[in-house]
Write a structure and sequence with these properties.
The protein contains 30 helices and 40 strands. The protein is α+β, with helices and mostly antiparallel strands and 927 residues long. The chain has four domains: 385 residues, Aminopeptidase (3-Layer(aba) Sandwich); 131 residues, no CATH class; 100 residues; 255 residues, Class I glutamine amidotransferase (GATase) domain (Rossmann fold, 3-Layer(aba) Sandwich). It starts with a helix and ends in a 7-residue tail after the last helix.
């Protein structure tokens, strides 16, 4: 590595036409500097910007800086998945450090419009420093901002000029230097592996591209810049917790983009989420003017308002906007820690990319210091505005635990982790004007009484607008943007949208939710305890067996533990009642005569850990429904799971499945390299998962021989699960793996599929006139004349092509479930599924379709769905199951584990894993 760095430095000195190859000090804030404060170079042992700093080097410099400078404090916020500490540098005047708790308290009071008199607000804004939060490196393969953080920290800690002293007097600056240490270390290991003695400026070289899965995501390969309100990961929870404590007025979110680009910063472009305050939007322009002036000083290129929108509230620069903070995005052209030759013939060095972030950061810090009092005043104004619902907006959201109290508590905990206040009803409460969302819009609830245990989220609170932004059912984009988006699709076949267009948490959790124009009346108390409910075993005497209701998500977690322990578990195919309790399909039964004598003790431990209630029953005789000793209780099998990954698989799709298996279900799973699937011994596994990915690449990596081998494994009793792009690979007519079809390849058979869908609906909605039946006058039920007959196959092809062009880009669509099918157990009769795909699937008998998108009139629940896509996706298949020999294939049109954001969709996937091998296969006895 030393030789590489030396050659790189020489190469930069000789060839870079735009930079000296080093990060220059005093670019924005002039010195002098305190010689007692060490420079980054002196601690790192190399010139900052000559190569990316590793985690331990960053940590070492931050530690030294905190030890040497009275203006710097180092605190640990938490740890990453891989155990690396997440630390924060706080830099301000020494006298502010002595009073830091008081500063935080005053700003918290400033941010809560329910506290303090106008005179107190004025006093706080006059005497209190503003807080600026600077976040670097949330994407592990976007390298330059982390090194920039070290230079920025040095400039502020060591600077002794009047400008620096003014900045430290006016501000408290929180520097989060490395938000994703696990991803960065993974990517730097790849860069080190593929670096040579002679630097390579070719962007296509592996030194720049890396190898799958790259370093963008964290340990589980999640994009953490989409996790700000989902809070799936410890890194996100630690960061958001600290932000709530600090209440910053400005947040910097530093990134990298393509190497041939220049530099982007806020303002963003449309669509802008309507919950963002106009006050915050105005500040974008204030900061942009000073940032542009700093770049103009050096002749550097930059732009604003071109492609980054602020519609999805889960980015770092977005989430903070709903808390009254001014969020500012940076995007620097990245060179992967090396250098890149650009189309104009110039060479961009890593030192330049670091330098640009340093200049941006210090320019924004200067602007914040110069506008400290106004920033604090507008922070108070914005919080007050965001805590008052707009005209016509709801006053509160109401969550009913229903049959899935554990999932509802999980949603409540998620809200509270973001500082959102939640109330719970201590007794039955009255909620006037409660309205739920359906395809026709808001629908009034007939009964105004809600049971004890109902949760209420009032929107008159400091984080009320944040609560609205992530809970509301269907925010709408401006007509002007929709016009632009339509023109872009029609003229260029491209979309201006950057991310998903829907994310309503109540829909994705499938929790019964209402909004109301008035705060409910009754005894409501604040929720203060996020600990899970205590489970246990209820049993008197010596039971015949134990029953566990499968409705709540905790039951799936308990089932995973039971199967891992090798216990004999059965699941009910039909509902029943026994011993005074009613049970639904999927209810788990453990017969005492089929399990060890320690069964009761084992169940007590599992119930206590997972929060479920297990009931012992003294008899097998049911009051209604099947008896417990009959064949309607299906024997489940412990799944032996393998998850396939590789260059054809989406790293985030693979990572979300891995995370589900490893951290949520706690199930052992083998991670297989797709290039090895053609020869490894698949008999070791009973379940094989192909994550979302490129159908074409899957086809290339498997080949005909690999597909034939995979098919043989399924026929011998395996369960193959294909997700989104992998499902498209398995359904492709060239693969000939299953009978589920890609819509675009079955246009000639649309009539048959439409007739099958009509018959399927009739089978689930039987209405019979028995008198007409006995009289012989009952007419034959015909499936009707499908609309597809009216079009020629060429016309269908053209219409399908347009439907793919206008595909759903992260819209929430209604899925109708078959509650009698094991794949839907525990989830009821319908749910919302997030769809971001052009692959629509058709299915008909003998393929089972336990989850089918609803008809066109009721399809869209939230997000943007063009009529062409609505027609194409209506009544298509979301999840299918079909037998193949002794095994089965389960396909998902969308990704049920997408960002771990949708417990409802994940439940179907969990059923495929936990129930599938028992309900759907006939494996050999030795399995």
């Amino acid at each position: 590595m030393t030789r590489t760095v030396l050659v790189l430095a020489l190469f930069l000195a000789a060839s870079c036409t735009q930079s000296t190859g080093q990060v220059r000090s005093s670019l924005v804030v002039p010195g002098p500097y305190d010689p007692a404060i060490p420079t980054p170079d002196s601690v790192l042992g190399y010139r900052l910007g000559s190569r990316p700093a590793r985690y331990e080097e960053v940590r070492a410099y931050c530690t030294v800086l905190a030890e040497r400078s009275p203006n710097v404090r180092l605190t640990v916020l938490g740890t990453s998945h891989e155990g690396r500490e997440l630390f924060l540098l706080t830099i301000t005047a020494e006298e502010h450090h002595a009073a830091i708790d008081g500063i935080r308290t005053r700003i918290a009071r400033l941010g809560d419009p329910r506290l303090g008199a106008p005179g107190e607000v004025a006093e706080i804004t006059r005497t209190t420093p503003a807080v600026v939060w600077m976040g670097y490196g949330i994407h592990g393969d976007e390298l330059s901002s982390v090194d920039a953080a070290l230079q920025v920290a040095y400039e502020l800690a060591a600077g002794r000029g009047e400008e620096t002293r003014t900045i430290l007097r006016e501000l408290v600056i929180c520097i989060d230097p490395m938000q994703n240490p696990d991803g960065r270390e993974r990517f730097l290991a790849q860069m080190e592996q593929w670096s040579g003695a002679v630097p390579n400026s070719d962007l296509q070289s592996m030194h720049h591209t890396g190898i799958w899965p790259g370093g963008r995501g964290n340990h589980y390969l999640f994009d953490m810049n989409r996790d700000w309100f989902l809070l799936i990961h410890p890194e996100s929870r630690a960061r958001v917790g600290a932000l709530i404590r600090w209440n910053p007025q400005v947040l910097i979110d530093s990134h990298e983009m393509g190497a041939y680009d220049t530099y982007l910063f806020s303002p963003a472009t449309e669509p802008l989420n309507p919950n963002i305050s106009e006050i915050s939007l105005d500040w974008w322009h204030v900061f942009a003017r000073d940032q542009a002036a700093a770049f103009d000083r050096f002749g550097w290129s930059y732009y604003t308002r071109e492609w980054n929108d602020e519609w999805y509230p889960g980015y770092g620069s977005a989430w903070t906007m709903y808390t009254g903070t001014v969020g500012i995005l940076y995007e620097q052209a990245g060179v992967d820690g090396s250098l890149v030759k650009r189309p104009d013939g110039t060479v961009m060095s890593y030192a330049q990319t670091v330098e640009h972030h340093v200049v941006s950061s210090l320019a924004n810090v200067k602007t914040a210091a110069a506008n400290r009092e106004k920033l604090l005043q507008d922070f108070a104004r914005t919080r007050d505005l965001l805590a008052r619902p707009e005209k016509g907006a709801p006053e509160a959201f109401v969550l009913v635990p229903g049959s899935r109290p554990g999932r509802t508590r999980r949603l409540v905990q998620l809200l509270r982790q973001q500082g959102i206040e939640v109330l719970v009803a201590e007794q039955e409460i009255a909620v006037d004007g409660a309205r739920a969302w359906d395809e026709a819009g808001l629908k009034p609830r007939r009964d105004s009484r809600f049971p004890a245990g109902t949760y209420v989220i009032p929107l008159r609170q400091p984080f009320g607008r944040l609560a609205k932004a992530i809970l509301e059912f269907d925010p709408r984009m401006k007509t002007s943007f929709l016009q632009e988006e339509r023109e872009e699709l029609e003229r260029r076949g491209d979309s201006k949208l950057y991310d998903v267009t829907a994310w309503s948490l109540p829909m994705m959790f499938n929790v019964e939710t209402y909004q109301t124009a008035r705060l409910p009346s009754g005894r409501l108390r604040p929720v203060t305890d996020d600990s899970p409910s205590r489970g246990g075993v209820q049993s008197g005497g010596s039971p015949y067996g134990y029953l566990l209701d499968y409705a709540d998500d905790a039951a799936a977690l308990a089932l995973a533990r039971l199967l891992e322990l090798g216990l004999t578990v059965r699941a009910a195919r039909e509902p029943f009642s026994i011993d005074g309790h009613a049970y639904g399909r999927g209810t788990l039964l453990l017969r005492t005569n089929e399990n060890p004598d320690s069964l009761g003790d084992v169940l007590e431990r599992i119930a206590s850990r997972s929060g479920v209630t297990v009931r012992g029953v003294p008899t097998a005789l049911a009051a209604q429904g099947p008896d417990l000793g009959g064949n309607d209780f299906v024997l489940l099998k412990q799944p032996r799971i393998a998850l396939v990954g590789g260059a054809e698989a989406s790293s985030t799709g693979f990572g979300s499945l891995w995370h589900l298996l490893d951290t949520r279900l706690g199930m052992r799973a083998s991670l297989l390299n797709s290039s090895m699937v053609s020869w490894i011994d698949l008999r070791k596994y009973s379940v094989l998962i192909l994550p979302d990915g490129s159908p074409e690449r899957y086809e290339r990596v498997f080949g005909k021989a690999g597909v034939a081998r995979l098919k043989k494994w399924v026929e011998q009793g395996g369960t193959l699960i294909g997700v989104r792009g992998a499902a498209a690979f398995l359904a492709d007519s060239s693969t000939r793996f299953c009978r589920t079809r890609l819509r675009r390849q079955a246009l000639g058979d649309l009539t048959l599929f439409e007739q099958a869908q009509v018959l399927e609906r009739q089978a689930r909605q039987v209405s019979l006139d028995s008198a007409a039946l006995w009289d012989g006058t009952l007419p034959v039920q015909e499936p009707g004349t499908p609309a597809a007959k009216e079009l020629s196959e060429k016309e269908r092809t053209l219409r399908d092509e347009r439907g793919r062009l206008f595909m759903p880009r992260g819209a929430l669509l209604r899925v109708v479930l078959d509650p009698e099918h094991w794949l839907a157990y525990g989830e009821g009769t319908q749910m919302a599924a997030l769809v971001y795909s052009s692959h629509a699937f058709l299915s008909r008998d003998p393929v089972e379709t336990p989850a089918r998108f609803s008809g066109a009139e009721a399809l869209r629940l939230s997000g943007l769905l063009w009529p062409e896509a609505r027609e194409r996706w209506a009544s298509s298949a979301y999840a299918t199951r079909e037998r193949l020999g002794n095994g089965q294939v389960v396909l998902f049109a969308g990704d049920p584990s997408f960002r771990a954001a949708s417990p409802a969709a994940e439940r179907l996937l969990e059923n495929a894993l936990l129930l599938g091998p028992g309900f759907g296969t006939r494996p050999p006895v030795e399995w």
